[in-house]
Amino acid sequence: MLSKKTKYAIKALVILGKNMDQPPMQISRIAETERIPKKFLEQILLDLRNAGFLYSKKGAGGGYSLNRDPKEIFLVSIMRITDGPIAMVPCASLNFYHKCDECHQETTCGIRDVFVDVRDATLKILSETSIADIISREQSLIHP
Amino acid sequence: MLSKKTKYAIKALVILGKNMDQPPMQISRIAETERIPKKFLEQILLDLRNAGFLYSKKGAGGGYSLNRDPKEIFLVSIMRITDGPIAMVPCASLNFYHKCDECHQETTCGIRDVFVDVRDATLKILSETSIADIISREQSLIHP
DNA sequence: TTAATAACCGACTAAAATAGTTTACTCTAT
DNA sequence: ATAGAGTAAACTATTTTAGTCGGTTATTAA
Ligand code: FES
Ligand code: FES
């Protein structure tokens, strides 16, 4: 299951993606419109900022805005920041690899072999889908 | 991440799949060979039995064996028993659907739209891969 | 028929991950 | 100066996962 953290992150980025040409938006405003606990969202946006996705400005009139084109922010990158690995077994993870403590020898593990395929299929979609894509998918769903 | 429960379930079914023509195998033997906590494995095998995948026999000389062809036991069915939903968001689950409490209207949700695609890709692999496939993949990995 | 074996069952506990909250600090515009 | 708004670390609560415990029931073999 996707964590709430990841879901909130995507929602925040989508809102900021629709806010591109306007002045920065405050955490409290995002939190209110999406009904996300403010302090929790604060942590999440900070992570995204430290990862380079967001620009932030302190003080009056400050807030957050996207630091790059929403077409270039892909779900896979967000999920790696908020949830960590994409793969369902640690031994199949590209960015968070570690040995499975339950399996004796990973090179001949049939489970790993299957879940590498699952990872590839998932990764293909998540690394092709951007915040801009989510926004345009929502548009298509509203006006079919 | 795949739970240990699911991983243990697959491992147990693989062992039993290799044991098809022999007398039933005891929990304790499976637990020892795969280093799975016995009492935990007991629960898991019981679930698989109640779902109709295993045959069990009590008393001396008893144990567990597969109740059907390993070619007909697919990962998707096992995972649904041990972990529940395949989809990463509840609103995209076929067998364990429920509303997302974070999203206002599911019909126009862009996140859901993407994760339905992810579910389909995952589901395709998991519903095509059987215990027999895992066994033969392991053979291929051992003798390339 | 009794003892041993092995699955069955429900309730309990421990540990880890997730989802937050609290408190205090720093920067910026007015 | 002061109010607005992000930064940061530490703390707490809740939920999920991963087990454990103690006893019951069915089957076989001596
Ligand atoms: S080695 Fe990772 S699943 Fe077996
Ligand atoms: S409705 Fe389920 S992710 Fe939005």
Question: Can you walk me through this structure?
Answer:
Chain A has a two-stranded antiparallel sheet. The first copy, chain A, has 144 residues and is mainly alpha-helical. Helix content of chain A is 50%, strand content 6%. Chain A is elongated. Chain A folds into two domains: 4-66, Arc Repressor Mutant, subunit A (Orthogonal Bundle), CATH 1.10.10; 85-128, no CATH class. In chain A, helix 1 packs across helix 3 and helix 2 crosses helix 3. The longest helix of chain A has 17 residues, at 110-126. The A-B interface holds A 1-2, 4, 7-8, 10-11, 14, 34-36, 75, 85, 88-90, 100, 102, 107-111, 113-115, 117-118, 121-122, 124-126, 129, 133-135, 137-138, 141-142 and B 1-2, 4, 7-8, 10-11, 14, 34-36, 75, 85, 88-90, 100, 102, 107-111, 113-115, 117-118, 121-122, 124-126, 129, 133-135, 137-138, 141-142. The structure holds a DNA duplex (30 and 30 nucleotides).
Keywords:
homodimer; 144 residues; Arc Repressor Mutant, subunit A; 6% strand; binds FE2/S2 (inorganic) cluster; DNA-binding
